[in-house]
Structure formats: structure tokens, C-alpha cells
Amino acid sequence: MHRAIAYIQEHRDAFVEELKSFLRIPSVSTKSDHKGDIQKAAQWLTEHMQRIGLEHTQILPTAGHPIVYADWLHATGKPTALIYGHYDVQPPEPLELWVTGPFDPTVRNGELFARGAVDDKGQVFMHLKALEAHLKTQGCLPVNVKLLIEGEEEIGSPNLDRFIMEQKDLLKADVVVISDTAMIAKGVPGITHGLRGLVYFQIDVEGTKSDLHSGGFGGAVVNPAFALAQLLTQLKDRNGRITVPGFYDDVRRLPAEERRALAGLPFSEKKLQKDIGAPGLFGEKGFTTLERLWTRPTLEINGLYSGFIGEGAKTVLPARAMAKISMRLVPNQDPAKIARAFTQYVKRLSPKTVRLKVTELSGRGTPWLAPTNHPAVQALARAIQKGFGKKPVFTRTGGTIAVVPTLDRLLRAPILFLGIGLPDENAHAPNEKLDLDNLHHGMLSAAHLWNELAEVILL
Amino acid sequence: MHRAIAYIQEHRDAFVEELKSFLRIPSVSTKSDHKGDIQKAAQWLTEHMQRIGLEHTQILPTAGHPIVYADWLHATGKPTALIYGHYDVQPPEPLELWVTGPFDPTVRNGELFARGAVDDKGQVFMHLKALEAHLKTQGCLPVNVKLLIEGEEEIGSPNLDRFIMEQKDLLKADVVVISDTAMIAKGVPGITHGLRGLVYFQIDVEGTKSDLHSGGFGGAVVNPAFALAQLLTQLKDRNGRITVPGFYDDVRRLPAEERRALAGLPFSEKKLQKDIGAPGLFGEKGFTTLERLWTRPTLEINGLYSGFIGEGAKTVLPARAMAKISMRLVPNQDPAKIARAFTQYVKRLSPKTVRLKVTELSGRGTPWLAPTNHPAVQALARAIQKGFGKKPVFTRTGGTIAVVPTLDRLLRAPILFLGIGLPDENAHAPNEKLDLDNLHHGMLSAAHLWNELAEVILL
User: Quick one: which of A15, A394, A400, B182 has the fewest CB in 10 Å?
Assistant: First the structure.
């Protein structure tokens, strides 16, 4: 084992140069004119995988961008881990805000700047190098591994569920390792063990069959924009509490111990407020910001439209008004039950002077929370402690990772998050970057993880 | 006089054919590719005006589309009337809903179908024919007349105020006649003697400096769309009463007599509801629909925007939300005072967790109400009674005619509305039409008006 660790330490600088060649490929998944670059990135991966000794390397087609697969399965009697990551990146625009080009990777002050540096090429690369360290120094891995690196994460993984369903046997594993998340702060390595779920709705309110003149009809006809505003206002009370009946019934109470643990994390509300440029923070009364973000459900307006929204004035009495509403769910809320309760409540709130339509959009996401005392999670904790020289904290994220419930449901394997990003590394924004210390400690942790997992008996 | 009347009766059918040639010109003012047609329509007018014996006919340039002017000023010692109308039309789209082409004028069941038939070419044409009847049969007019026919009414008359200000001497008159309105129902000729005023605002609410991810930040950050909805909801109570402090202070109480007169008008709420396809009507408690439309002020949302409004779902926590709000005012509300009260109230309602901006848009419109017993108004009433064979009713409109306060202020002359449209003639909509009986009776009324006005001493 110490030879694998030494290998990573010896190649620290060379690895950064190798990562740069991966980052130079502008594999933007959302734009069709980057299709060739997507192909190039997939090719870069397979060639790299072959070179470091992985097997069955292949580029598997989907209805969209292909999925890269590879494995190494010679650790007889040992667990099999499935590593998930993605090789596609967000568009780099607005380009003028980048200090150096998004696809011209540059190191400044121990940080590597490039689109995809942290999200997610750097984290995929971390795994490749940890596997290489084992394979080059020992000729084998302590466990079996499979890699599933997709090319459509930044556009919502539209073909991933189907792929996993169809390739269930190929992907069969005892444990899943996802590396596409961030730690709470530099120097505070962490394990994400909770995600929020999601239901998403569109509400359409119709007052009249077509737009009317606000002079000729104003004052005597229902205004659907007003009706919608009144309806929306009734979805939350002044304390930020959601008023959908039964909404909180199944919300897991936060044990005092977890509450204390959250309070002990290095998180600054002041810094958050400054980072997002808000005059003030606001959320459900009785909870801290971190509790609101990680452990409490939300109901947010994602979009709002009615009438004339161009420049200047138009005296229209709108026929219709529309709102997009999403709810983030936490354990043990059931997306189906919440969707039903929301629809019924909104219909009940609607005045009789308008026609209301409630439409559920996009897939439901189930909230996810893993017990921190699971042997696989404990193995990851030990690996991180060895890799970073520091005991990891347990964190959650307020977001929803679509693939998690799918993997959970289809593979029935514990999911481990080994994420080495930082909250201020500008994923999805200009000047995306990756802390090179974290990359190095991440590689060490990944290398240790396979040894730790080899010792765990997974059922 | 009877010779002018006979002339109109003899040429009844021929006039319709002439009007068709005016309606065939697609003088859509909002589209730059119709600039040539605008020119053509202005030319058609001046040639027609010259042919019927009007003088000083000219096409006067503005920063936008030109204004057509003509006069006849040989009635020494008699009053001078300024006739206002417009030769531009609304766009005809959606074309597929027209039974016959918008610029292929067609008569069906005594109605002439074409874009501009009622709004406003038909009503301008009515005046030309009444003047022609006098000039061709008597060689003179009973009064002096000036015609101001603009080409930008359908785009908000952006250059008219300035033109009137600059041409104050040219346009000087003792009375103004506007023909661009409708009567309340077929067989019920009327005189519009009241208009509502207008103030128009945009409210911008900013929560954060840029859009955030609703997973990563939802529940802990103020949602500007929610803040805006809450603010809007507080602008009116459940009874439809506007809650801006002082809003109703200067509203003129409706005398019992006027209330009775309104109740006696042939107006059906059921028909209105059916025409606009509304599940129900709604307005300020304690008032009839006609009272709400004509005599009560309003506060309406004209536009609403926040976040993602495209198809499908996007989990964005919007940085900003926007609403366009307009208020229709009634005598004796002062637009400046209402604008001030609204701005102060909205600022007071805004939570401290957002940045609020209140911007006044477009020109203010002063409410207008003319006494029905003015000698000029009584002259118009007699002319209509002779033209339609029926005593006119006094009506108002809920709309705002921008030129009215300007004319009122600059010319200080009484304004008469001789309008022959009907509420269901689809102005601004497909299958716009004009009732040919009304056109004929309108011409007779216009011809009578000049005789009646010649007898009135205006100060």
C-alpha cells in the first residue's frame, strides 16, 4: 500500500499536467456544435483507462452523448465498487469574465483554473490516478471496480436512468462511489450522506379566453395575475412555513445530536449572504441556515409569467398567468404523497372566477439519507482521514442528484460520496477552479478507500 | 341642409365602395415593412380631401408616421371645429382566424369586414362624406373645420403631443370632435362624456445578485417572486378595494341620478361574461359592472415575470422578479398624487430582505369628465337624434384616450365624441367590422352637427 501512496506523491506535479490535457477538451454537453469535443473527451478517457491497466474499456452509445465504461474484476472474493462521474462540462459563457481561457488550464496560487476543473473532470481524474497508483505499483487492486462516466450530467442526465436499467447486470456492484460534490470548507474534508428530493409543478390560471384592454375591462374582470399572486401567497405563512396540509407530517425530526453536529460545522451565514449579494437571509423560523438548507423541505417559485413583460408599458389585462413551483423534500417525505397534497390544496385555494390547471413537470426525486454508521461509510471515513490527515465531518446537500435514487433503487448498494470540491470553486460559473491540495489528498483518499473497502464485508 | 342629407342618402352604396378602397391599404403602423402603406394611406386621404373641396391639404412629417391635415375656413364669424381621427390600423394577425382577408373588404349581413373598418378608417371616412355632402350641395360649410388625422394612434401616438404643442396655432379651434369610440349597443346611439386617467408603474424586486440553484440555496434565501406576490396581494383587499392609502380620497361620488341613468342603459353582464369567456366576473364590492368600468378607479397587474418561464422545469431560485402595474383613475383623482401615494406604499410594503425599485412608465393620463349640459354637447345630442332618429344616451369609457387631456390642456376647447362603433366589432381582433347602418346614420349625424354647432355661441 505505501508504494501506491508514494507513487501518488512522486507524480503530484506530473498528474496536474495530465489533467490539463483532459481539461483542454471543451466537452460542453448542451451545445450541438461541441459534439466532436464530447467524442474527444470520451476517447481521451478510454485511452487513459487502457493505459493505466483498466479492462473492457468502451464507449457505449445512448440516445444522446455516450457513456464511458471500464472495469477491473480480478479481486476474487472482494467487494465490487461502481465509480460514477461525468466528463461533460457546463458552457463557459460569459467568456469575458474569465481571467484565463476556460479551456486553457492555468495554475495560480495552488488552484487550477479551467471549465470542468472541479465539476467533474478533476474528480474523475482523481479516481483514475488512485487506480493507476495501485495497478502500476502492485499490478492489482484490493477490490473490483467498475467505472461509469457519463457525458450528459450537465443537461440533466436524460438517458442515464434508461442506461442503468438496461445495463443492470454490467453495473452490478456492492458499493457505489460518487465523486461530484463539495466539502463544506477548505481543510474540512466531509462525507455527504443526505440529499433532498424534488417535486416540480406548473400552475396555470386563466381568467378570460384572450387578453383584454385594461381600460375597457379593468376593474370588472378577474385579473389572473392577481389571482395567482394571492394563491402563491397562501402557500407559505409569514414565518416561511409551508401551509400545504400534511406537508410536514413525515418530516424526520432532527435529533439533538445531529443539530449539535450541524452547529459545530464551519459555516458562516455572513459569508453566504455576502457571496450571493443578498440584503438579508430568510427562511423557516426556528431553524439555522444550515438546517434550512439540508434538513428542511422547501417550496420555491422558480418562474412567474403573465401579460406584458417587454420594455415599457402595455395596458393589457392578461388572460393567463403562470407559475413554476418546486418543492425540495427531506426524509421521510414521500414525493407522491406531497404531489397529491399540493395539487389538492392549490385547487382548493383557486377562486371560482378563474380556470386553474396544475401540471407536474419532470421526474420526482426521492430524498436520500444514509446512516453514517454503515461499515462502507465508516471505511470511507477512515480513507479520508488517512488521505487528508483529518477526520471527515458528515454533511448533506440541499440539492437533488438524480442518479442517486436510481442507483439506490436498481443496484441496492450503499452510496459513498467522496467529493473534493469547495463551495467557492465556481462550478457552473466563470473562473471555475480546483484546489490542488484537495486533488492530491483526494487521490490519496481514493487509493486508501480500496484498501479499506477490501476489509469490509458487504451483504 | 336637406340637400346635404339627400346627397348622403343617394350615395349610400357608392360610399361603401369608396371606403373599401381606403380599407384595402394595409397601413399597419407598428411594422416598419408597412411604411410604404402608411404613406399610401396618407396620400389616399389628401387626394380624397382635395377632391371633396377641403383646402390646405398636407402631409405633415413627425419623428414617426406623418399627420394628415386639411381645413375649410370660410364660415366667417362661425365656430371652428377640429376633427381628430387616425388612418393607421392594428396588425391583422392571426390571419387564419379571418373569414375574409383583413385587407379585402367584404360586406356580409349589412356589416363591412376589414381591418380598420371601425377603428378608425370608417369613422374618419364618415366625416369626409358629411363634409362632402355640404360642400357638393351648397358649396360651403356651416362652420369652419380643421382635420387632424394621425398615423400612430395604434402605437400610442408617440409624436402627437409634441405636434399639437408645436402646431397650436394651426390647430386652434372652438370645439374638438373625436370619432374613435363605440356606442353601448346597436340602436342605442350615445355620447361619451367621460374617460379614465392612467398611471403606470414597474416594480422590480431583487433578492440576490444572480440566479441561484434552488437545491443548493432553497429555503435559506429570500425568493423575490414570493416577496413580489406578497407585495401585490397587499395592494387590494378581498373585496377588490385598493388599499393604497388615500387612493379613494378624491374620487367623485356618483350622484344617485347618474347611478340610475347607468342602471337604465342596455348593458348585460351575462353577455360580457360570455363574450370574454370568463368563468365569472369580479370587481369592487358594492358597484355594478358598468359603475366599475366607468366610474371607479382600478389597480391592475399588466405583466409579471420571474425566473424560468420556458417549457419544462428548471430548478432556479430567481434573483429578480418584476411586475407591471397600472391604475385607471376617475375624476377627481390627481395622477401625480396617486403616483406618489402608490410609490410610498409599495416601498413601505417591501421586506428588508430584498432590494426594491419602483419606476413610473409612460405618460400620466388625467381622468376626463365633461358636463352633459354644455351647449356644444347639447348640439351634438341634437345632431345624433336627427341622424339616428333616436335620442342619444350619455356613456363613458373605462379607457384613456391620450390625446384628450393634451387637447383639453392646449386648445382649451370642449371635446365632443361622435363614435359609431359597437362593442362587438372586433377592433384590434380578427374579423373587425363596421355596421353599415351606423356608418350611414353617423354620416347624417356628422352633417347635422355642423348646422347645430353653427347656432351655438361658444366662448
Answer: A394
Average pLDDT on A81-108 reads 95
What is the share, in percent, of chain B residues with pLDDT greater than 90?
Answer: 86
Q: Is A88 a residue of the active site?
A: yes
> Are residues B202 and B168 part of one domain?
no
What's the whole-number mean pLDDT along residues A49-59?
A: 98
Mutation target to probe the A interface, by most A beta carbons within 10 A, among B203, B234, B289, B302 is B302
CB atoms within 10 A of CB B97: 12
- pLDDT band at B459; cut points 50, 70, 90: low
Range of the domain at A50: 2-195+367-454
Total number of domains constituting chain B: 2
Say how far apart CA B447 and CA B231 lie, in whole Å: 54
Contact A215 B196 (CB under 8 A): yes
A237, A269 contact by CB (below 8 A): no
pLDDT of residue A459: 52
Choose between B343 and A403: higher pLDDT.
Answer: B343
- Residues A304, A323: Cα–Cα separation, whole Å: 4
Burial class (CB in 10 A: 0-12, 13-18, 19+), B248: middle
List the single residue in B with minimal CA-CA distance to A309.
B303
Q: Is the pLDDT of residue A93 over 90?
A: no
User: Which chain A residues contact residue B305 at CB under 8 A?
Assistant: 304-306, 309
Q: Please give the Cα distance from A224 to A354 (Å, whole number).
A: 7
Residue A34 sits in the same domain as residue A177: yes
Distance CA A4, CA A86 (A): 25
- The mean pLDDT value for A221-246 works out to 97
End-of-domain residue from the set A364, A384, A417: A364
Catalytically annotated residue among A37, A71, A88, A174 = A88
For residues A88-105, average pLDDT: 93
Dump pLDDT digits (tens) for B6-42. Answer: 999 999 999 999 999 999 999 999 888 899 999 999 9
B431: domain CATH number is: 3.40.630.10
Contact assignment for A307 to B289 by CB distance below 8 Å: no
Residues B104 and B210 placed together within one structural domain of the fold: no
* Domain-embedded: residue B277: no
User: Residue B458: what pLDDT?
Assistant: 64
Same domain, A306 and A348: yes
Q: What is the pLDDT of residues A390-402, one digit of tens each?
A: 999 999 999 888 7
Q: Do A278 and B222 touch (CB under 8 A)?
A: yes
The ipTM (two decimal places) reads 0.87
Q: Which of A355, A346, A143 is closest to A242 using CA atoms? A: A346
Q: Judge if B153 and B221 occupy the same domain.
A: no
Q: Are strands A197-206 and A355-365 parallel, antiparallel or unpaired?
A: antiparallel
User: Measured between alpha carbons, how far is residue B116 from residues B48, B113, B180, B189 in Å?
Assistant: 17, 9, 11, 21
Instruction: Name which of B236, B192, B240, B197 is nearest B330 in CA terms.
Output: B197
Please indicate, yes or no, if residue B270 is contained in any of the structural domains. Answer: no
**Domain boundary at A319, A336, A364, which?**
A364
A258 within domain boundaries: no
CB contact under 8 A, B302 and A322: no
Query: pLDDT-derived band of residue B347, with 50, 70 and 90 as boundaries?
Result: very high
Could you tell me if A364 lies within 8 Å of chain B, comparing CB atoms?
no
CATH number at residue A336: 3.30.70.360
Q: How far is CA B100 from the centre of its chain?
A: 26
To the query of whether residue A237 is one of the catalytic residues in this protein, the response is: no
Residue A5 pLDDT greater than 90, yes or no: yes
Q: Is residue B214 part of a domain?
A: yes
Regarding whether A40 and A144 lie in a shared domain, the answer is yes
pLDDT digit string, tens, across residues A133-174 = 999 999 999 999 999 999 999 888 889 999 999 999 999 999
Contact A218 B272 (CB under 8 A): no
Overall average pLDDT of the B287-291 stretch? 96
Same domain, A330 and A384: no
